[in-house]
Amino acid sequence: KQEVTQIPAALSVPEGENLVLNCSFTDSAIYNLQWFRQDPGKGLTSLLLIQSSQREQTSGRLNASLDKSSGRSTLYIAASQPGDSATYLCAVSAGGTSYGKLTFGQGTILTVHP
Amino acid sequence: DADVTQTPRNRITKTGKRIMLECSQTKGHDRMYWYRQDPGLGLRLIYYSFDVKDINKGEISDGYSVSRQAQAKFSLSLESAIPNQTALYFCATSAPGQGGWKETQYFGPGTRLLVL
């Protein structure tokens, strides 16, 4: 059974800092890994999707890396802003009988203070 | 207008009551999902449907049932609600795309359910 773990559970940083969120998964047979952002009262929004054959994806100040063999992914946020405050979730998608289903980590609650 | 909508957004009910949570989507996706989120546990899959005639149990289906009334509508029912079903419930949709490699899910805003 796939298990996804995110570290740290919560992170508080001053505005302008660069930061790294970590995600690990136990079964390397994945189709893709995604990072989502969750804001209070709103659903999840996909930030970045890395296919299993890729090493990284970038979008603006966000960079996600994937090391499938070691079961790890990182989300790097450059020059953090208060508007980045949210819960960040990683999720993996697998094939076979798990095709199309996502397994989520517990999330990292990020607070960026002015 | 939002692509994935959920009703109600908030609900308080009593133990033993039957309730239904509804999800509608305008994205034209065949696949729909129901998740619950508990503090510190991330999202867990309750049921999923890959088309109107296809319903599958997820990780935590006990105590829940679903109905796929149309491509655009997927409802979750709690036949006899209990306090440990208090949670945030999300509906999501997806399309298979290129063999699944780039498939992502689109989430509704969630329904906050409190069972007393």
Summed over residues and divided by their number, the pLDDT of chain B gives a mean of 92
Sheet with most strands of chain B: 7 strands, mixed
How many β-strand stretches of chain A?
11
Shape of chain A: globular
The helix-strand sequence of chain A is: EEEEEEEEEEE
Radius of gyration of chain B: 14 Å
- Helix- and strand-based class of chain B? mainly beta
Form type of chain B = globular
Biggest sheet character of chain A:
6 strands, mixed
Q: How would you classify the helix and strand content of chain A by structural class?
A: mainly beta
Q: What helical percentage do the residues of chain A reach?
A: under 10%
- Number of H- or I-type helical stretches of chain A: 0
| Strand tally of chain B | 11
H and E order of chain B: EEEEEEEEEEE
Strand content of chain A: over 45%
Poorly predicted segments of chain B? none
Q: With helices defined by DSSP (H or I, 4 residues minimum), what is the helix count of chain B?
A: 0
